[in-house]
Amino acid sequence: MKLHHSIEQAKRTKGHHAWTMLEIMIVLTVASLILAGALSTMTFMHRTLDGTANYAELDRQSRNALDQMTRDIRMCGGLTNCSPTALYFTNKDGTQLSYVWNTNTGRLVCSNYASGETLSNLLLKGCTYLKFSVFQRTPVTNTTMTFTPITVPDPTNFNTVKVIVMDWICKKTNYTTLTDSESVQTAKVVLRN
């Protein structure tokens, strides 16, 4: 009798192992929420990495431009002309060196007129703002490394220029979000001449 009772019980419970429609809907809802969370996390991480890569590229570009400009300006013979968007120098050998920012293209180009050749080098691109400022040779009284600005340099007396301050802002568009990453740089270079 016991055997017959357990067979009957097994037959009755055998049909109860299937999922109900309510259980399937709950599982699908939970799975959809987990998948949506994973996709939004992945999208956020992709945007963050894209922005970080742009900041690193802008920083590398600015650092390389600043390194070259600092080295060249410190080694030049002297400033011969300037404007808020351009600097013109004479090298020690008498050749010309210039840094000119094109406001239309947003590019800063270095041109070195050595040995009868013009060597041009693109230093910055995507530059939305750039300004060169020049300061007098004599420091302000009772200060160190504080110089008086020269608003309109005298072209006949550029030897009064001792310090050049460079400010620029470069932008690069992120690929996925179509927003801009921005890099702001400021540097002060003291002429050695």
Number of helices: 2
Tally of individual domains: 1
Beta-strand level of the residues, as a percent range?
Answer: 35-45%
Q: What class, by secondary structure content?
A: alpha+beta
**Major β-sheet, in short?**
5 strands, antiparallel
Series of secondary-structure elements, N-terminal to C-terminal: HHEEEEEEEEE
Helix content: 25-40%
Q: For the record, give the distance between the C-alpha atoms at the N and C termini, rounded to a whole number.
A: 114 Å
Strand order of the largest sheet: 1-2-3-4-5
Shape: rod-shaped
Low-confidence stretches: none
For the residues shown, what is the average pLDDT? Answer: 82
How large, in whole angstroms, is the Cα Rg? 33 Å
The count of strands amounts to 9
What report would you give on this structure?
There is one protein chain. This protein is an alpha+beta fold. The protein has one domain (35-190). It is 35% helix and 37% strand. The protein has 2 helices and 9 strands, in the order ααβββββββββ. It has helices at 2-14, 21-75; strands at 78-83, 86-90, 96-102, 107-113, 119-124, 127-139, 147-150, 161-173, 180-190. The strands form 2 sheets. Strands 1-2-3-4-5 form a 5-stranded antiparallel beta sheet, with helices on one face. A 4-stranded antiparallel beta sheet has the order 7-6-8-9, covered by helices on one side. Strand 4 (107-113) and strand 5 form a beta hairpin. The radius of gyration is 33 Å and the shape is rod-shaped. The chain starts with a helix and ends with a strand. The relative contact order is 0.14.
